[in-house]
Protein 1
Amino acid sequence: MNFQKILMPVLGVVLVAGAWRAYGWAGVALVASGIVMWMLLHFTRLTKVLGKAADRPIGYVASAVMLNARLKPSVSLLHVIAMTQALGERLSAEGEEPEIYRWTDGGQSSVTCEFAKGKLVKWTLFRPQAAEES
Protein backbone atom coordinates (compact mmCIF):
# COMPACT_ATOMS: atom_id res chain seq x y z
CA MET A 1 0.00 0.00 0.00
CA ASN A 2 1.22 3.49 -0.83
CA PHE A 3 1.33 5.29 2.52
CA GLN A 4 2.19 8.61 0.87
CA LYS A 5 -1.37 8.84 -0.49
CA ILE A 6 -2.67 8.59 3.07
CA LEU A 7 0.11 10.39 4.94
CA MET A 8 0.07 13.65 2.96
CA PRO A 9 -3.66 14.47 3.46
CA VAL A 10 -3.43 13.47 7.14
CA LEU A 11 -0.38 15.73 7.54
CA GLY A 12 -2.31 18.57 5.88
CA VAL A 13 -5.24 18.14 8.28
CA VAL A 14 -2.89 18.01 11.28
CA LEU A 15 -1.15 21.22 10.14
CA VAL A 16 -4.48 23.01 9.67
CA ALA A 17 -5.73 21.80 13.06
CA GLY A 18 -2.50 22.90 14.77
CA ALA A 19 -2.70 26.30 13.08
CA TRP A 20 -6.32 26.69 14.23
CA ARG A 21 -5.40 25.78 17.78
CA ALA A 22 -2.39 28.12 17.90
CA TYR A 23 -3.52 31.15 15.85
CA GLY A 24 -7.20 30.76 14.98
CA TRP A 25 -8.44 31.73 11.51
CA ALA A 26 -5.24 33.60 10.67
CA GLY A 27 -3.22 30.42 11.20
CA VAL A 28 -5.65 28.37 9.11
CA ALA A 29 -5.38 30.92 6.29
CA LEU A 30 -1.58 30.88 6.44
CA VAL A 31 -1.27 27.07 6.46
CA ALA A 32 -3.95 26.64 3.78
CA SER A 33 -2.22 29.14 1.49
CA GLY A 34 1.08 27.30 2.04
CA ILE A 35 -0.52 23.97 1.11
CA VAL A 36 -2.11 25.49 -2.01
CA MET A 37 1.25 27.02 -3.01
CA TRP A 38 2.97 23.63 -2.60
CA MET A 39 0.29 21.97 -4.76
CA LEU A 40 0.62 24.69 -7.43
CA LEU A 41 4.40 24.24 -7.54
CA HIS A 42 4.00 20.51 -8.17
CA PHE A 43 1.32 21.11 -10.80
CA THR A 44 3.55 23.66 -12.55
CA ARG A 45 6.45 21.20 -12.60
CA LEU A 46 4.19 18.50 -14.00
CA THR A 47 2.89 20.72 -16.80
CA LYS A 48 6.40 21.98 -17.70
CA VAL A 49 7.82 18.44 -17.89
CA LEU A 50 4.92 17.16 -19.98
CA GLY A 51 4.98 20.28 -22.16
CA LYS A 52 8.65 19.70 -23.02
CA ALA A 53 7.98 16.00 -23.61
CA ALA A 54 5.11 16.79 -25.98
CA ASP A 55 7.52 18.52 -28.39
CA ARG A 56 9.76 15.46 -28.82
CA PRO A 57 9.22 12.09 -30.50
CA ILE A 58 7.91 9.32 -28.27
CA GLY A 59 10.66 7.02 -27.03
CA TYR A 60 13.59 9.22 -28.13
CA VAL A 61 16.54 10.22 -25.92
CA ALA A 62 19.72 12.07 -26.90
CA SER A 63 22.02 9.40 -25.40
CA ALA A 64 20.82 6.09 -24.00
CA VAL A 65 24.21 5.47 -22.37
CA MET A 66 24.03 8.76 -20.45
CA LEU A 67 20.45 8.01 -19.42
CA ASN A 68 21.56 4.61 -18.15
CA ALA A 69 24.30 6.27 -16.08
CA ARG A 70 21.90 8.81 -14.53
CA LEU A 71 19.12 6.40 -13.54
CA LYS A 72 18.69 5.41 -9.90
CA PRO A 73 16.29 2.95 -8.27
CA SER A 74 12.95 4.24 -6.95
CA VAL A 75 12.81 7.47 -8.97
CA SER A 76 9.38 8.30 -10.36
CA LEU A 77 8.25 8.04 -13.96
CA LEU A 78 7.85 11.83 -14.01
CA HIS A 79 11.51 12.20 -12.98
CA VAL A 80 12.66 9.91 -15.81
CA ILE A 81 10.48 11.82 -18.30
CA ALA A 82 12.09 15.05 -17.05
CA MET A 83 15.57 13.56 -17.61
CA THR A 84 14.81 12.32 -21.12
CA GLN A 85 12.48 15.21 -22.05
CA ALA A 86 10.37 12.67 -23.95
CA LEU A 87 7.62 10.19 -23.19
CA GLY A 88 8.79 6.59 -23.30
CA GLU A 89 7.62 4.02 -25.81
CA ARG A 90 5.19 1.85 -23.85
CA LEU A 91 5.98 -1.87 -24.10
CA SER A 92 3.54 -3.22 -21.49
CA ALA A 93 -0.23 -3.42 -21.85
CA GLU A 94 -2.36 -0.51 -20.62
CA GLY A 95 -2.99 -0.71 -16.87
CA GLU A 96 -0.66 -3.70 -16.40
CA GLU A 97 1.90 -3.80 -13.58
CA PRO A 98 4.84 -3.42 -13.94
CA GLU A 99 4.84 -0.68 -16.56
CA ILE A 100 7.65 -1.03 -19.08
CA TYR A 101 8.92 1.86 -21.22
CA ARG A 102 11.80 2.18 -23.69
CA TRP A 103 13.87 5.17 -24.80
CA THR A 104 16.09 4.85 -27.89
CA ASP A 105 18.81 7.17 -29.21
CA GLY A 106 20.02 7.86 -32.75
CA GLY A 107 22.57 5.01 -32.65
CA GLN A 108 19.81 2.47 -31.85
CA SER A 109 21.04 2.02 -28.28
CA SER A 110 18.10 1.82 -25.92
CA VAL A 111 17.22 1.81 -22.23
CA THR A 112 14.23 -0.26 -21.11
CA CYS A 113 12.81 0.79 -17.74
CA GLU A 114 10.43 -1.14 -15.52
CA PHE A 115 8.21 0.81 -13.12
CA ALA A 116 6.23 -0.73 -10.28
CA LYS A 117 3.65 1.57 -8.67
CA GLY A 118 5.17 4.53 -10.51
CA LYS A 119 8.71 3.97 -9.20
CA LEU A 120 11.70 2.70 -11.18
CA VAL A 121 12.52 -0.89 -10.21
CA LYS A 122 15.07 -1.93 -12.82
CA TRP A 123 16.43 -0.90 -16.18
CA THR A 124 18.55 -2.45 -18.89
CA LEU A 125 20.79 -0.89 -21.51
CA PHE A 126 20.87 -2.43 -24.99
CA ARG A 127 23.70 -1.51 -27.36
CA PRO A 128 23.72 -2.97 -30.88
CA GLN A 129 26.77 -4.86 -32.06
CA ALA A 130 29.16 -2.76 -34.14
CA ALA A 131 29.14 -3.77 -37.80
CA GLU A 132 32.15 -5.93 -38.56
CA GLU A 133 34.53 -4.35 -41.02
CA SER A 134 35.54 -6.65 -43.85
Protein 2
Amino acid sequence: MNTIIEITPQLARGLGITISVLLASAVFAYLMAFIAGLCRLSKNVFIRKFTGFYVEVFRGTSLIVQLFWLYYAVPMLFGIELGSNWWIGVIAIGLNYGAYLSEVVRGSILSVAEGQTEAATALNMSSFQRMRLIIFPQAVRMMLPEFGNYTIQILKGTSLVSLIGMNDILYYGDIIRSSNLSQAPLVYFLVLVFYFILALPLIWLTRKGESISKKGVAS
Protein backbone atom coordinates (compact mmCIF):
# COMPACT_ATOMS: atom_id res chain seq x y z
CA MET A 1 0.00 0.00 0.00
CA ASN A 2 2.86 2.39 0.75
CA THR A 3 4.23 1.82 -2.74
CA ILE A 4 0.82 2.46 -4.30
CA ILE A 5 0.42 5.66 -2.30
CA GLU A 6 3.87 6.74 -3.46
CA ILE A 7 3.37 5.92 -7.17
CA THR A 8 -0.19 7.20 -7.66
CA PRO A 9 0.58 10.95 -7.28
CA GLN A 10 3.47 10.61 -9.73
CA LEU A 11 1.23 9.02 -12.36
CA ALA A 12 -1.45 11.65 -11.70
CA ARG A 13 0.97 14.30 -12.95
CA GLY A 14 0.23 13.07 -16.46
CA LEU A 15 -3.56 13.36 -16.16
CA GLY A 16 -3.65 16.90 -17.53
CA ILE A 17 -1.88 15.97 -20.77
CA THR A 18 -3.91 12.78 -21.24
CA ILE A 19 -7.26 14.53 -20.74
CA SER A 20 -6.38 17.57 -22.85
CA VAL A 21 -5.16 15.41 -25.74
CA LEU A 22 -8.30 13.24 -25.44
CA LEU A 23 -10.70 16.20 -25.58
CA ALA A 24 -8.89 18.03 -28.39
CA SER A 25 -8.39 14.85 -30.45
CA ALA A 26 -12.03 13.85 -30.03
CA VAL A 27 -13.30 17.26 -31.17
CA PHE A 28 -10.92 17.24 -34.16
CA ALA A 29 -11.87 13.65 -35.03
CA TYR A 30 -15.59 14.50 -34.90
CA LEU A 31 -15.00 17.51 -37.16
CA MET A 32 -13.03 15.46 -39.68
CA ALA A 33 -15.66 12.70 -39.50
CA PHE A 34 -18.52 14.96 -40.52
CA ILE A 35 -16.50 16.77 -43.19
CA ALA A 36 -15.13 13.56 -44.73
CA GLY A 37 -18.37 11.61 -44.29
CA LEU A 38 -20.45 14.25 -46.06
CA CYS A 39 -17.80 14.71 -48.76
CA ARG A 40 -17.92 10.97 -49.48
CA LEU A 41 -21.58 11.51 -50.40
CA SER A 42 -20.85 14.49 -52.65
CA LYS A 43 -21.84 14.38 -56.32
CA ASN A 44 -18.45 15.90 -57.19
CA VAL A 45 -16.14 13.06 -58.26
CA PHE A 46 -12.95 14.92 -57.31
CA ILE A 47 -14.19 15.60 -53.76
CA ARG A 48 -15.31 11.98 -53.33
CA LYS A 49 -12.00 10.57 -54.60
CA PHE A 50 -9.85 12.97 -52.58
CA THR A 51 -11.79 12.27 -49.38
CA GLY A 52 -11.75 8.54 -50.09
CA PHE A 53 -7.96 8.69 -50.44
CA TYR A 54 -7.65 10.37 -47.03
CA VAL A 55 -9.95 7.81 -45.40
CA GLU A 56 -8.22 4.76 -46.86
CA VAL A 57 -4.70 6.02 -46.08
CA PHE A 58 -5.44 6.79 -42.44
CA ARG A 59 -7.53 3.64 -41.92
CA GLY A 60 -4.99 1.46 -43.68
CA THR A 61 -1.85 2.57 -41.84
CA SER A 62 -0.77 2.39 -38.21
CA LEU A 63 -1.44 5.31 -35.86
CA ILE A 64 2.11 4.98 -34.52
CA VAL A 65 3.52 5.34 -38.03
CA GLN A 66 1.29 8.36 -38.67
CA LEU A 67 2.42 9.92 -35.39
CA PHE A 68 6.10 9.43 -36.22
CA TRP A 69 5.52 10.62 -39.79
CA LEU A 70 4.03 13.91 -38.60
CA TYR A 71 6.66 14.29 -35.86
CA TYR A 72 9.80 13.34 -37.78
CA ALA A 73 9.20 13.00 -41.53
CA VAL A 74 7.05 16.03 -42.37
CA PRO A 75 9.47 18.61 -40.86
CA MET A 76 12.50 16.87 -42.43
CA LEU A 77 11.04 16.28 -45.90
CA PHE A 78 8.86 19.33 -46.37
CA GLY A 79 10.17 21.80 -43.80
CA ILE A 80 6.69 22.13 -42.31
CA GLU A 81 6.50 22.58 -38.55
CA LEU A 82 3.15 21.44 -37.20
CA GLY A 83 3.67 23.05 -33.82
CA SER A 84 4.40 21.55 -30.42
CA ASN A 85 4.33 17.85 -29.56
CA TRP A 86 0.85 18.40 -28.14
CA TRP A 87 -0.48 19.64 -31.48
CA ILE A 88 1.20 16.84 -33.41
CA GLY A 89 -0.37 14.26 -31.10
CA VAL A 90 -3.82 15.84 -31.45
CA ILE A 91 -3.55 16.09 -35.24
CA ALA A 92 -2.35 12.49 -35.67
CA ILE A 93 -5.00 10.98 -33.41
CA GLY A 94 -7.74 13.24 -34.80
CA LEU A 95 -6.95 12.41 -38.42
CA ASN A 96 -6.72 8.69 -37.70
CA TYR A 97 -9.99 8.30 -35.83
CA GLY A 98 -11.68 10.93 -37.99
CA ALA A 99 -11.16 8.57 -40.93
CA TYR A 100 -12.87 5.70 -39.09
CA LEU A 101 -15.71 7.90 -37.86
CA SER A 102 -16.30 9.31 -41.35
CA GLU A 103 -17.51 5.87 -42.39
CA VAL A 104 -19.89 5.89 -39.42
CA VAL A 105 -21.27 9.23 -40.61
CA ARG A 106 -21.60 8.08 -44.20
CA GLY A 107 -23.16 4.74 -43.28
CA SER A 108 -25.64 6.32 -40.86
CA ILE A 109 -26.84 8.82 -43.45
CA LEU A 110 -27.23 6.11 -46.08
CA SER A 111 -29.12 3.87 -43.66
CA VAL A 112 -31.96 6.36 -43.15
CA ALA A 113 -35.02 4.85 -44.81
CA GLU A 114 -35.49 5.92 -48.43
CA GLY A 115 -39.12 6.63 -47.71
CA GLN A 116 -38.05 9.58 -45.57
CA THR A 117 -36.24 11.17 -48.52
CA GLU A 118 -39.15 10.43 -50.85
CA ALA A 119 -41.61 12.01 -48.43
CA ALA A 120 -39.40 15.12 -48.08
CA THR A 121 -39.15 15.37 -51.87
CA ALA A 122 -42.94 15.11 -52.13
CA LEU A 123 -43.14 18.10 -49.77
CA ASN A 124 -41.00 20.04 -52.26
CA MET A 125 -38.00 20.31 -49.92
CA SER A 126 -34.62 21.17 -51.37
CA SER A 127 -31.72 18.72 -50.99
CA PHE A 128 -30.26 20.91 -48.22
CA GLN A 129 -33.59 21.01 -46.39
CA ARG A 130 -33.98 17.24 -46.72
CA MET A 131 -30.54 16.69 -45.23
CA ARG A 132 -30.90 19.29 -42.46
CA LEU A 133 -34.46 18.61 -41.35
CA ILE A 134 -35.14 14.95 -42.17
CA ILE A 135 -32.08 12.81 -42.81
CA PHE A 136 -29.36 14.30 -40.61
CA PRO A 137 -31.31 14.36 -37.29
CA GLN A 138 -32.12 10.66 -37.68
CA ALA A 139 -28.60 9.78 -38.80
CA VAL A 140 -27.03 11.52 -35.80
CA ARG A 141 -29.01 9.31 -33.42
CA MET A 142 -27.65 6.22 -35.16
CA MET A 143 -24.10 7.59 -34.96
CA LEU A 144 -24.11 8.05 -31.18
CA PRO A 145 -23.16 4.49 -30.07
CA GLU A 146 -20.26 4.25 -32.52
CA PHE A 147 -19.06 7.74 -31.68
CA GLY A 148 -19.00 6.69 -28.03
CA ASN A 149 -17.06 3.51 -28.78
CA TYR A 150 -14.49 5.36 -30.87
CA THR A 151 -14.10 8.02 -28.18
CA ILE A 152 -13.01 5.26 -25.82
CA GLN A 153 -10.56 4.12 -28.52
CA ILE A 154 -9.26 7.70 -28.75
CA LEU A 155 -8.62 7.67 -25.00
CA LYS A 156 -6.53 4.53 -25.38
CA GLY A 157 -4.78 6.03 -28.40
CA THR A 158 -3.59 8.99 -26.33
CA SER A 159 -1.09 6.68 -24.61
CA LEU A 160 0.98 6.78 -27.81
CA VAL A 161 1.88 10.45 -27.32
CA SER A 162 4.43 9.33 -24.74
CA LEU A 163 6.47 8.07 -27.71
CA ILE A 164 7.07 11.67 -28.82
CA GLY A 165 8.07 12.82 -25.35
CA MET A 166 4.76 14.10 -23.99
CA ASN A 167 4.33 13.85 -20.22
CA ASP A 168 1.16 11.80 -20.09
CA ILE A 169 0.26 9.02 -17.64
CA LEU A 170 2.21 6.33 -19.50
CA TYR A 171 5.26 8.61 -19.76
CA TYR A 172 5.50 8.90 -15.98
CA GLY A 173 4.81 5.19 -15.64
CA ASP A 174 7.78 4.41 -17.89
CA ILE A 175 10.01 6.71 -15.84
CA ILE A 176 9.05 5.02 -12.57
CA ARG A 177 9.49 1.57 -14.13
CA SER A 178 12.93 2.44 -15.53
CA SER A 179 14.14 3.58 -12.13
CA ASN A 180 12.92 0.43 -10.36
CA LEU A 181 12.25 -2.63 -12.53
CA SER A 182 10.84 -4.60 -9.61
CA GLN A 183 7.90 -2.16 -9.48
CA ALA A 184 7.04 -2.60 -13.16
CA PRO A 185 4.00 -4.91 -12.66
CA LEU A 186 2.50 -2.60 -10.05
CA VAL A 187 3.24 0.53 -12.08
CA TYR A 188 1.52 -0.76 -15.20
CA PHE A 189 -1.37 -2.11 -13.17
CA LEU A 190 -1.92 1.40 -11.78
CA VAL A 191 -1.64 2.84 -15.29
CA LEU A 192 -4.42 0.45 -16.35
CA VAL A 193 -6.51 1.61 -13.40
CA PHE A 194 -6.04 5.25 -14.38
CA TYR A 195 -7.16 4.62 -17.96
CA PHE A 196 -10.11 2.52 -16.80
CA ILE A 197 -11.29 5.27 -14.45
CA LEU A 198 -11.02 7.81 -17.27
CA ALA A 199 -13.00 5.47 -19.53
CA LEU A 200 -15.89 5.00 -17.09
CA PRO A 201 -17.70 8.29 -17.97
CA LEU A 202 -17.23 7.50 -21.67
CA ILE A 203 -18.67 4.01 -21.19
CA TRP A 204 -21.70 5.53 -19.44
CA LEU A 205 -22.17 8.08 -22.24
CA THR A 206 -21.90 5.33 -24.85
CA ARG A 207 -24.67 3.34 -23.17
CA LYS A 208 -26.74 6.51 -22.96
CA GLY A 209 -26.15 7.04 -26.67
CA GLU A 210 -27.32 3.50 -27.40
CA SER A 211 -30.62 4.14 -25.63
CA ILE A 212 -31.09 7.46 -27.44
CA SER A 213 -30.28 5.87 -30.82
CA LYS A 214 -33.23 3.49 -30.44
CA LYS A 215 -35.69 6.36 -30.32
CA GLY A 216 -36.86 8.67 -33.03
CA VAL A 217 -35.45 6.84 -36.07
CA ALA A 218 -37.93 5.82 -38.73
CA SER A 219 -37.54 2.25 -39.99
